[in-house]
Amino acid sequence: MGYVGRFAPSPTGPLHAGSVVAALGSWLDARAHGGRWLVRIEDVDTPRCPPGTDRVVLGQLSALGLLPDEPPIWQTQRTAHYEDALNRLVAAGQAFACACTRKQLMAAQGPRERHGELVYPGTCRPENGGLRGQAARAWRLRVPGGELHWQDRALGPQGQDVAREVGDFVLKRADGLWAYQLAVVVDDGAQGVSHVVRGADLADNTPRQILLQRALGLPQPQYLHLPLVLADDGQKLSKQNGAAAVDLQDPLAALQAAGRVLGLPALPAQALPEWLAQAARAWPLRPKDNPPL
């Protein structure tokens, strides 16, 4: 089927400098491989997605010249697919209902590092007594033990023991919303995504997604995690810490700034389409025998 890449923003706010790096990097990798580039609006966490922000994001991408090869899709239109995937996992004994509250899990784990993972201890696994007459709050994937290894195109060999460091993770939340991990895996599989290119802050999601791909019988994409844009305090630039929307009065300047983060050389182009074409040819991870589209 060839190369299929994607940019999958959550419309919790306009694109900022960091998300432009992710968008440009994924677009360049697709173009450099002669592949297709898709856009998926990951609005499954509806309370965090202000109405109309999805259209703002799509308008920003258009202003930057980053146009998808197919019409975008929205996760909120795909809930039946997530329900089907969960039903399959439950039927296969790979997912189970959980009655635990966050407060109970925090009490069970005890002290942890700031921002550290809240590891699920297996409380509601069927072999541990299941729900014990309590109402189901969430659904979790049964995570096998052992180290999971994968190769990242930028970060190199990676590994994680998901059972020890994360535990059985949530597929459907207590508030009835679908968890990011399930939605992204189902959608990548449905869209035939062969290469995932995204920010390095999402690298630790990869092992969970690989486990879900295996459980659902889906192919594993190749992964490439890009450098992050940092705020003045050294933290990742994000909407949560007040990152400003990217200034699109000069779209070429915005792309050039993103290109510097991605390690591109200075390019002589003065027009947007010309710069993008030059950038695809200069992409460091371009196959030497495959000219970009």
From TrEMBL:
Domain of life: Bacteria
UniProt keywords, alphabetically: Aminoacyl-tRNA synthetase, ATP-binding, Ligase, Metal-binding, Nucleotide-binding, Protein biosynthesis, Zinc
Free-text cofactor note: Binds 1 zinc ion per subunit.
EC number from the UniProt entry: 6.1.1.-
Keyword Transmembrane: no
Cellular-component GO terms for this entry: cytosol
One Pfam family linked to the record: tRNA-synt_1c
Ranges in a coiled coil: none
Motif ('KMSKS' region): 236-240
Annotated GO biological process: glutamyl-tRNA aminoacylation; tRNA modification
Function: Catalyzes the tRNA-independent activation of glutamate in presence of ATP and the subsequent transfer of glutamate onto a tRNA(Asp). Glutamate is transferred on the 2-amino-5-(4,5-dihydroxy-2-cyclopenten-1-yl) moiety of the queuosine in the wobble position of the QUC anticodon.
HAMAP family tied to this protein: Glu_Q_tRNA_synth (MF_01428)
Protein name: Glutamyl-Q tRNA(Asp) synthetase
Chain's gene name: gluQ
